[in-house]
Each structure stands twice: as C-alpha cells, then as structure tokens.
Predict the structure.
Amino acid sequence: MDQVPFFQHDLGEEEIAEVRKVLSGNILTTGQQVLEFEAQFAEYLGVNHVVGVTSCTGALHLSLAALDIGNGDEVITTPLSFIATATAIIQAGATPVFVDVERHTGNIDLKRIESAITPRTKAIIPVHLYGQMVDMLRLRAIADAHSLHIIEDSAHCIEGAYQQIKPGTLGDTACFSFYATKNITSGEGGAIATNNDALAKKLKLLRHHGMDKTAFDREKEGYSHWDMPIFGWKYNMDNIQAALLLPQLNRIDANLRKRAALAHLYYERLKEIDGVSTFDIKPEVRHAHHLMPIRVSPAIRDRVVMALHERGIGAVVNYRPIHLHAYFREKYGFENRHYVAAEEIGDSVLSLPLYPNLRHEQVEHVVERLSTIVNTLQPNPNL
Ligand SMILES: *Cc1c(COP(=O)(O)O)cnc(C)c1O
C-alpha cells in the first residue's frame, strides 16, 4: 500500500475559482469575501457575529484584549493543548494557570477549576480537545458563580456540540483556527465567534490597528480621514483567505460525516489490539473528529511513532503538555508531576491519520501495521 500521510487537504477547483474571483478584483485585503465568510460561518454556528482574523492565536489574544484582560490577571486553562492556548495569555500580559485534565477525554477537569480560582482570575480558556466539546453548561455555571469570562479555544471543534450547544453560544467568544491541518483551512487563518454585539464591534476595531475605517470602507464610501480611537493589532483576515474558506463551508458537514465514519472504523478495529486504547466519547457530544488520538505504553510510544513513519504512515503527538516545555519550566517553575493526568496522556498519546479523503482500506492498513508494531515493541507480560 502507498504512503498514508498524516494529513491531506481537499482543496480543489472550487477554491481556485473563488480565489480567481478575488484576484480579478482589486481588494485583496479584508472586503466582500471576508464579509460573506463571516456571515455564512455565523449562520453555521448559530451565533450573531463572526470576526475573521489571521490565526486562532490572534483570535485568543484579541478576545483577551477585548475583554480588558492583561497585566496582573490570571487565566485558567488546560496544560494539554497546543502551546498557543497559553502563549496567547502571556501575549496579553496575563498569567496562565493550569488545571489538570480528565483521564478519559483529555479535556480540562471541571471539578478542579474552582480550587484554582483566585481574586486575580478573570477568565477560563477551555480547549475542546481533539474535537470533543467541554460541558459548556457546567463551565458557564462555574464561570458565572465567580464572574469570569469564557474564551473557547475551538481550534479542534468547528462542527462539534455538547447537548446541541455549539461553540460560541455560551462562551464570551469562541476562537477558531484555519491553519493548514485544521478541518477547514486557508493555510493560515482564524475567526472569533460571539453573541455579544458590543464585543464584536470592539474586536473589529482591534483586529485592524484600532482604526475606525478600512480600505474597503473607503472604496465603498469614498475617501475620508480615519481615526484611531483605541490601540489595536494587525489580525484582519484577507479576501484570499476568505475565498479559500467559502467553498469549504458548503461541504463541512459532509466532510464531518466522512471523518466520523473513519473514526468509527478506527475505534472498532483498535479494540482488537492489546496495548492500544482510545479516548472516551461522551454520549452528550457531537464530536468534530479533528484528530484520531490513541494511547500506548509510555515505554514504547516514541518508537511506535518512528516505526509508523518508517512504514510510510504519518503520526504525530498531540500533545506533550505545555507546562513541561523549557520556556514554561523556566519562567513559572513547573516540574514533572504537577499535572499528572496531562503528563500521563502526553507520554502515551499519538495521533493517526484522519481526513475526509482517507480511504477505509487505508485505515485497515494503518491499524494492521500499528498492531504488528505494538506487538513487537510491547514488553511481553509472560516473559
Ligand atoms: C492549531 C491550534 C491553535 C493555534 O491556531 P493558529 O491558527 O495556528 O494560531 C490553538 N489552539 C489549538 C488547540 C490548536 O490546535
């Protein structure tokens, strides 16, 4: 069998046609296509506003800035995520405070949040890890009891829901990524969803230098001077990114169904392998199936990843916990055993290929190879 890459995008003629439309016009930066994408994505999520930006990292940073969270403030989040979840907090000037995760899902453990709240706590950033949404009703109740904001890191969870509640509904904002390997992609890109009208307005200023007019406004309305009422950053999504995303919205649920079927097949086949386990999916969850994570013994995990690569199968680790990266150890004094569940997952997890154009035979092939590798590397308990 051919190579099975870890990820493959499914962009094609429709995206090329949409980008061609942008290039034949004159507004390459934020304009008509961005407005259309924002409107259509807001409709998909069932939220009042979407603000297009250049990354999820930028979306998280802007959400914190728009909520006036910065120096001296603490923000609670999970150590089991991509580093950007925590670096955005630092970028805003605040301090990340980690809360350990649930062993069986990898999501932040809601039971442990209250004991991490201090008078400086201003917000919670949950991550809907691998595509499985956190229980937002319970999290909102905890946040409300302590007057905290919620910013959802929904980079893995565009299509997901918990008890029918989608990202952006109960959070003050939800932040999305359209990075190269995400469920829809523009190479780089991101978005913020919110139901708060005033916050949406502020986010639109903040993503564009704090300027009260854009080039698109001047094109439509004729020239007039702009002012800079507040300090802002440069995070506005451009028309080329929006053009790449628009056609993908049309097939977003069809692609989810394909990934869900593939994930289901993985779960069925992986049950038969000793030494491999999967994460629980809660019955209340509509899973976005962004990643296909599995767990093996920490003693063999790195060798399993390498052996898959040697056989032409892509696999990566999502994630080694944030607090154990050198910068975080040095700056905050984190050590091993501080967040035990996150560390146990970080030492044993790896992600297998999962994307809409992956074929069922390829899943069978990956599982077969994985089974042989694990059987060979695993210490035999009978010896
Ligand atoms: C990809 C990712 C991000 C960062 O997204 P960018 O668009 O690359 O900034 C943040 N959080 C999580 C959980 C991610 O997977």
Notes: The chain has 13 helices and twelve strands. The longest helix spans residues 252-270. The mean pLDDT is 97. The two ends are 34 Å apart (CA to CA).
